[in-house]
Specification:
This protein is α+β, with helices and mostly antiparallel strands. It has 8 helices and 4 strands, in the order βαβαββαααααα. α1 runs antiparallel to α6 and α1 packs across α8. It is globular and about 50 Å long. The chain starts with a strand and ends in a 10-residue tail after the last helix.
Length: 219
Amino acid sequence: MSLKLYFAPGACSFVPHVLLEMSSADFEPSMVKLHKGEQNSAEYQAINPRAQVPVLVNAGQPITQILAIVLHLDQIFPKMNFLPTDPMARAQALSTLAWMNNTVHPTFTHIFMPQKFSDQPEVQAALKPYNTQLFRSMLGELQGLIQAAAGKGQPWLSGERLGPLDAYSLTLTRWGTMAGIAPEAHPALWEFVQRVAAEPAVTRVMARERLQLNVGTPA
């Protein structure tokens, strides 16, 4: 099996990066420096014309989008149980993963890159505080999911094994600190992501990507 992951430090590509590290598979991590525009190069766009990360290349075939990549990794590493096997639990885990990717994630993009949504400076300025409040409430919802899982005796969001929901939780919480949302605003969430960060595979990925959890100054 020939696996290559194109990732950007601190981006949502952290999620499959963690899963691959957990799998102990022989994979090639390839950094894409978004701040230098490497995603816009002809070479990279030949792999992903949308100029986004992550991209997982398996035996020469590129796979894009978090949901597709996570499902593929779950299928090729079935013993890892990245996602639950019970049909209802699996559907619920995928529902949460989709929410993280199609709702929470884009809300942060409105904060971090408002220029993607308007070319008017006054609109861009208004997008940041508005979406920061939305993002803060979504982190509160995420904290509620973590507390509900703990209430059921689950150590991780989707069950007994660390998985994509946990890695994405770390990413979203870390982004919150970039938006000026103090970790103390969601103490159960912050405690949880610190526990995620302490897992050996996660620690190795964070070291490779040179990440720290709290990267912002509270507003």
